[in-house]
Structures are given as structure tokens and as C-alpha cells.
Amino acid sequence: MDGTDILVSSVLTVITAATPLAFAALGELVVEKSGVLNLGIEGMMIVGAIVAFATGVTTESTILAILAGALAGAVMASLFAFTVLVLMSNQVATGLALTIFGLGFSALVGHGFVGVSYPGLIKLDIPVLSTLPIVGPILFAQDVMVYLSVAMVAAIAWFLTRSRAGLILRAVGENHDAAHAIGYPVIRIRFFAILFGGAMAGLGGAYLSLAYTPLWVENMTAGRGWIALALVVFAAWRPWRAFFGAYLFGGITIVQLHIQGVGVAVPSQLLSMLPYLVTIVVLVFISKGSVRQRLSAPGSLQKNFYAAS
Amino acid sequence: MSNLNVIKRVRRSVVLGVSALILAPMFLSGANAAEKMKIGFVYVGPVGDHGWSYEHNQGRLAVQTAFGDVVKTTYVESVPEGADAERVITKLAKSGHKLIFTTSFGYMNPTLKVAKRMKKTKFEHATGFKRSKNVTTYSARFYEGRYVVGHMAGKMTKSNVIGYVASFPIPEVIRGINAVTLAARKVNPKVQVKVIWVNSWYDPGKEADAAKTLIDQGADIIMQHTDSPAPVQVAEKRGVWSVGQASDMSHFGPKTHMTAIVDNWGPYYIARTKAVLEGKWKPKDTWGGFNTGMVQMAPYNKRLPEDVVTLAKSIHQGIGDGKIHPFTGPIKDQSGKVIIAAGKTADDGMLAGMNFYVEGVVGSIPK
Q1: Bridge partners (DSSP) listed for residue B42
Q2: Which ipTM value was assigned to this complex?
Q3: Higher pLDDT residue, A60 or B35?
């Protein structure tokens, strides 16, 4: 393989690695903007992964598989939403419990699907543009979920900053008592935000089992939900930054693998740390500065809402 | 304010109701038959990994089938190496398990610690090297299988680069890398082996990324010492040969899965259970290979040329018969220094502590 081939191939690998993180991080960002801390991302991702895989294998329809993954994540999220919004239980504990539950539940459901192979997602070649050298295969010959992830980050960024509904969501996240006083339905808004976050996490998980490594094995999320959670914080709750963070993380991961393959004498353990370190440093660096940035954590994050009137 | 109390009351009753549902089965299960001997198994990955832990579980099932009602086997899967492992092993020992198999290198110290306290329980630690009065070690000579596939790789590679997806830099993994390198270079002196460490026994995503990177860097054969079928899958997608790990992974690479090195723990586990039942259990290290059937080769891919398969089978036979020893000198390390002289073979001690790369491996071992 010549130089450009290796470059293109590596970038494609990065895109594959970054997409699940992007989905999960974007979903969690919306949830946290509404004021809820959802630690159940990992559980929702893994349930999305197995449901998407099972659906894909039994129905042989990619669309159904993707939708099923999103739906599964949303259903898990509705459990979380009920427990946290209606029963007002502690958000951190509930999220953790849901992660543990999701891991076990997916293992149970997935028992019959171990050892089953799936053809993966087909790349959609955009007619003329995908033949361009280098940028062609990278930008214009991706599978449907990669395009979806880009569409989502644009949509979410627009929604949060330019739409009235997004403004209301942010208001609920900043100060739920004030929002309630104005008359906005805090619980309902948070409920839908959580469902959305769960669906996105489910999509991230679906990408893992349908495209990244098209198979099912237990615990295949391997902690990506937690990475997504961290990405949201280090991106200062801004959608494009979170998206960039996911790609930065994926990019450094692939770079360190290449460094190892070439045989550079840096300890592999140190190289494995690199993606985490670099992502944290870069995101924190670009997020600090003005006071406005520091205050971008939603004011009512993690506080349970109880209408006092 | 009364609304808040209502919510709290509802929450309390939900918690109580759900807890009752979950805990009830514990009290409803009848008294255990006290005569059955309990045997415990601790796995580092899920049984569904279709690799390392899967094969150990197959061994457990063999024991259950062989002894029927006389034994009761239990397993705990996906136990992380470290403090968690100690807790799980202790729990098994305290709940009446008389024989416990801990199936990962990283369980070494936790096993010994628990064994010191629970002197009546017998422990079998896989791939370790520390023993005591009630702890023994066992492993399989996977490197014999690596020697076979190394020959195959040497013949099949066109780019002269073999890619190796490795887990942790412990002697067992380094042995495998060296065995492959030595064998490949016997057939094709130009072969180089590139290694990527994913620092995990099991992470399909990372393993897939490592395989992709190795292929991008020129490898046209992918080998692995990690437990998921992801590298085999990636190799299939890219049209590159692969070798499965611990169990037959041809399902994930029907066109390109050459063979796999299969662990076969059943006979050993049955023998050890018998020893405990008859009161004849002794702590002695067991390191079986082709000769005792602890290591087996999966069926060879039909697309392989006949001469490659014949070569593989003859190496397999030779090692099983004791005529071929993979680590026979002259063996040089990467600096060219002769570690094992011509005609001499490495003894088990050197193999168990192997911490150098042989000539032909790219890079250096992470400290």
C-alpha cells in the first residue's frame, strides 16, 4: 500500500472508531443540557448493540436493525426517566444501576447470538464525489450511520442554540424552578430529553455491533459509554466540541497503534494512555478562557426537580 | 409537602416490592445435596467470548458430564484480575467449593492469598508459575501450535510481514510471538513480525483497530493473542489470512481463517477432579501440549494449498512425537546474540520466563 492508501485507510479506521462515541456523547449532551446526569449510557449502548444485532440477523434489514437499536436505548432510558423524574431517586445511583443492569441483560439476550456473523453496513457511494482522490472515500463513501452522526451534530447544535424549543430545554437545565415558574413542563421536557439521549446511546451501540465489529460478544462496549460521558464534560457541553472530541480520541487511538506497529521504543502502556490524555488536555484547553465557558455546566445538573407549588 | 411524602412512599414500596421479587428465589431454593463435591471456575472473560473462557467452560461441561451427579460445578465469568478476583475466589472457597480453577495469569497472587487462608481447598491456577501446598499450576504449550502456524504463515505470506495483535507483555505471549517468528523464518528468512499491544485480553473494538492498522502497515497474515474474533473478522473483510485464538473462529472468516490453536481442557479437568475425589491430588505443574491433546489444531481451511497443510500436519506430528522442539538452537535475539546454541533446546524454565524477542520481530518489548 502506498502512502495515500495508508492515509485514507487510517482515516476510515478513525471514523469507524469515533462514530459510536459521537452518538453517545451527543445524546448525553442533550440530556445534561436539560439538567439530568445519566450515568446509564454504557448500559443503554450495550442494550442497543444486542437488540440491533439480533434484529439485523433475524430480519436481515439494516434499517430495522438501526431503528431497533435506537428504540432499545430509548426504552432503557424510559426506565431511567421514570425512576429519576417521577420517583425522584438519586440520578447517579440510578444511572449506575442501569448500566450494570444493561450489561447483564444484554448478555442474557445475546446468549444465542454469540458466534453469529453479520455482513456489516454497506458504504453508500455518492456518485461522482466518491471517486475524488483521498477525500472521495473519506467523505463521500461512508455508511448511513456516519452520515447520520454528522447530521445529528448539526441538528443538535442548531436545536440548542437557534430554536425556541432548545432554548426552553436549556432554561430547564439552567434553573428548573424558574422554568417551572414561567410555566414550562419541566418533567415532560426532561423525559423527552432522556429518551432522546437513550436513543442516541442505542444508536452508538448499534454501530458497534453492526459496523465496527459486526458480531456480538458480551461487554463489547468496553467502557465507551464512560468515555462519551467524559467527552461531554471536557467539551463544555457544546455539540461540535463533543463531536470533535470523539474524533480526536479515535484519531489518537489509531495513531498510537501505528506508532506501535512501526516499532518505536515507547512503552505500549504509555501509548495506550495517549488518547485519554490528549483528549482531556485539548478539550480543557479550548474550553477554558471566558467566564461564560466556565459556567456552561447546566445550572440544575443532577438536581432532582420537585414542584414546590 | 404531602405530595413529596406520597412520592417517597411510592418509591419505598417500589423498592421493597422489587427487592422481594429478586430475593425470593434465594429463600425458596431447597437444601443442597450435601454429598455433591462442588467445583468452582473463575473466568477472566465471558463464556460468550467464543475463545479463551469459552474453552475453559467447555472443559467444565466435560467434567459435569463425566461425573454426573457426583459433582456440582459453578462458574463466575468476567472477573477482573486484581482485588475483585480475590473476593470472588474467597467466596467460592467459603461456600464449600473443594476444587477451584482460576483461569487467568493475573489471578496468580489472589489465588495464593486465598489459598493461604483456606487450607482445605485445592486451587488450580492456569498459566501461572507460583505453587504452594494447595495451589498448583497448569498450562498448555500453545507455542507448539504457534510453531505450526508460523510455518504456514512463512509459506503463505507475500509481503513478508506478519501482524500480531497481542494483549499483555507476559512470557506466555512473548513465547507465542517468538515461536511464530522462528517458524516463519525457517521457511522464509525475510519474514518480519509486527506486534501491536492492546493491553487487554478482550476488547473487540481495539483488537479490530489493531488488526486494521497492522494490515495498513503491510501485514498479509494476522495472528492474535487476544480473545475475541474481531481480528479474524477484519482479516476476512480485507482479504488477508488469519489464525484463530483458543477456539475455531472460522465462522468469522470462512475464506481466510487458516486454522486456530484450540485449547482442550476437558481431559485435564476430568483427571484433576478424579484426583480430588480419590484423595490423590498433589500440587504438580502440568504443561501439556500436542502430546497429551491439551493443544489441538482446528480444521485447516480448504483454500490452503496442499503442501502447506501437509507441512503443518507434519510439524504437528513431529512435535507431538517429541522429535521437533520449537525452541531448538541456534536462536538469536534481536541484537544478534546467540541465546540458545545450535542443537540445544530451551528448557521449561527459560520458556516460562521468556522476556526477549528473537530476531525478526519488529520493535521492543514494553517494560
Answers
A1: B76, B102
A2: 0.84
A3: A60
